[in-house]
Amino acid sequence: MIVILKQHATEEDRQNLIEELERYGVKVHLSEGDQRTVLGLVGDTTKIDKSVLEANDAVHAVKRVAEPYKKANRKFHPEDTVVKVGNTQVGGGNLTVMAGPCSVESREQILAVAHAVKAAGATMLRGGAFKPRTSPYSFQGMGPQGLDLLREAKEETGLPIVTEIMDPNDLKYFRDIDVLQVGARNMQNFDLLKALGKTDQPILLKRGLSATYEELLMSAEYIMSEGNPNVILCERGIRTFETYTRNTLDVAAVPVLRKLTHLPIIIDPSHSGGRRELVVPLSLAGIAAGADGIEVEVHNDPAHALSDGPQQLLPEAFEVLMAQLKTVHAAVHAEA
Ligand SMILES: [Mn+2]
Question: Where is the DAHP synthetase I/KDSA domain positioned along the sequence (predicted)?
């Protein structure tokens, strides 16, 4: 971190500032030019709040030279992280396909979809039991009963389960759930992130609607700094000026995050496109960009789905998608 002092900063201002900075345990190197005095901070600057320094009267500007996230940072962990989920692995060249309905609606529905996606080659079953809906009048999910149905579907198919948790107080219901999903709207629910950091369960962390890459990685850092290294990132579309699609899938997030972090990256073609006909091309684009997998919504009767009907694939379409995904994934991972 580099701190540039104002021209009018006095010797006393400078000494006070250096003492303040040294309290964080960093070394301060002073270099005095004709026009400007610059302080170079060496050591762990993660605990220093840039905006507090910027508000100091003697400070002209503050520049970070290192990213504020450490545990999620590829610089300190060059190897890709591989997250073990049941009998499958996310990252490390594996193709992860989390498929299933937006919401668990009934025993018949979740079992039918689970068997269909398993037969087509999905590696995990997704399904929402606790639903974060934009409207309080929309279907809110089956809650703990929905989790029981997911457990039953897992027992029948062997597919590990991915399902969303919204409230740290619900953790008691999720102790045996394979992957806990944090939705886009909860990406900065820091109490939830901290509680999930105290477990060792894999977490699927979705990017917020208007979150930067750094904000996403800082949210991952919340989980990891509490001791849980099992974080999987998910790009699920961001809010832009475009209204044709539900959100705009940021495909660039995949190669950029790949560079910044060692964590696995999944894309969600369903909530980004919001339309069934976009799910296949967006899925393929994500894998082509180097994503470790997708999380996709599949329903046996989308026309009557209780949530997100227009974007859910029929099992037959999912089967076709699986074949295409494998082809693109193989092409990306082929030796040049
Ligand atoms: Mn959905």
Answer: 87-326
Q: What is the CATH number of the domain that holds 165?
A: 3.20.20.70
68 within some domain: no
Q: What spacing in Å lies between the alpha carbon of 292 and ligand 1's midpoint?
A: 20
Per-position b or e across 232-262, b if 16+ CB within 10 A of its CB = bbbbbbbeeeeeeebbebbbebbeebbebbb
The β-bridge partners of 180 are 163, 203
Size of the chain, expressed as the number of residues it contains:
336
Which CATH number covers residue 26?
Answer: 3.30.70.1140
CA 334 / ligand 1 centre spacing (Å): 33
* Enclosing domain of residue 240: 74-333
SS3 track for 210-271: CCCHHHHHHHHHHHHHCCCCCEEEEECCECCCCCCCCCECCCCHHHHHHHHECCCEEECHHH
Distance from Cα 186 to the centre of ligand 1, integer Å? 15
pTM of the model: 0.90
Confidence band (pLDDT; 50, 70, 90) for 336?
low
The pair of three-digit structure tokens given for residue 261, joined into one six-digit string? 């972090």
Which residues have CB under 8 Å from 32's CB, separation 6+? none
